[in-house]
Write a structure and sequence with these properties.
By secondary structure, this protein is mostly helical. About 45% of the residues lie in helices and about 10% in strands.
Length: about 210
């Protein structure tokens, strides 16, 4: 898988200095989020609007919202199980592969609260709008689980705007998105695991306007 190959190659290039910078930024992002009150847990079923359309959240495991959309909200679209990337019969499907490279810039802008034009949205199909809305909901849910995670996710999504950056590589840029990856960040912060492929993604975010 292309993503796994990229991860294996990058492990050899991560220095202790780069890793230390990434760990410090992780900590700083979390502290800022907590000081600002952080993302809120879901207390009941709620529908939230995004520039791409609505998504639904309900209380999930550990207080982080569980995100869904439905065909009533997006008539004629294909259902999704909400995974970032999945492989089926040699093909990659999921929310990340649903979007074209240039559309990830729009998604990052929306996650930063920037306004999108009707022309921006018109460039997306109904299925892509559904995927983008789901990604916004999931990104906000991740921030409930791990304070500061939204900056990390935005950087990982921004990297997908590079047409040569394949969809599976998102799971190297944001390992928490892997199946069973929910505890990844906690293991890094506790020192039980050393960050590797995501270090570049985190340091990319901190060198951009996403640091603020």
């Amino acid at each position: 898988m292309a993503g796994n190959a990229a991860a294996a190659a990058y492990v050899q290039r991560v220095t202790d200095e780069e890793r230390a910078k990434a760990d410090a930024r992780r900590k700083r992002w979390a502290e800022r989020d907590i000081k600002r009150g952080g993302a809120q847990q879901a207390e009941s079923f709620t529908t939230r609007e995004t520039p791409f359309g609505p998504y639904n959240e309900r209380p999930g495991r550990g207080g982080a919202p569980y995100i869904t959309t439905n065909k009533t909200q997006y008539p004629g679209t294909e259902p999704t199980d909400g995974r970032y990337v999945r492989e089926e019969e040699g093909q990659f499907n999921g929310l990340i592969p649903a979007l074209d490279a240039e559309q990830f810039i729009l998604l990052v802008k929306a996650l930063k609260g920037q306004e999108l034009s009707e022309e921006d949205i018109d460039g997306l199909s109904d299925d892509q709008c559904r995927a983008a809305a789901m990604l916004m909901g999931i990104a906000n849910a991740e921030a409930v689980r791990e304070p500061g995670a939204l900056k990390h996710i935005r950087s990982a999504l921004r990297r997908q705007a590079n047409p040569s950056h394949e969809a599976p590589e998102f799971l190297n840029d944001y390992p928490q998105g892997r199946v069973g990856g929910a505890g990844h960040e906690g293991r890094i912060r506790s020192g039980r695991r050393r960050a590797t492929p995501e270090v570049e993604t985190i340091n990319d975010a901190s060198s951009s306007s996403d640091e603020g």
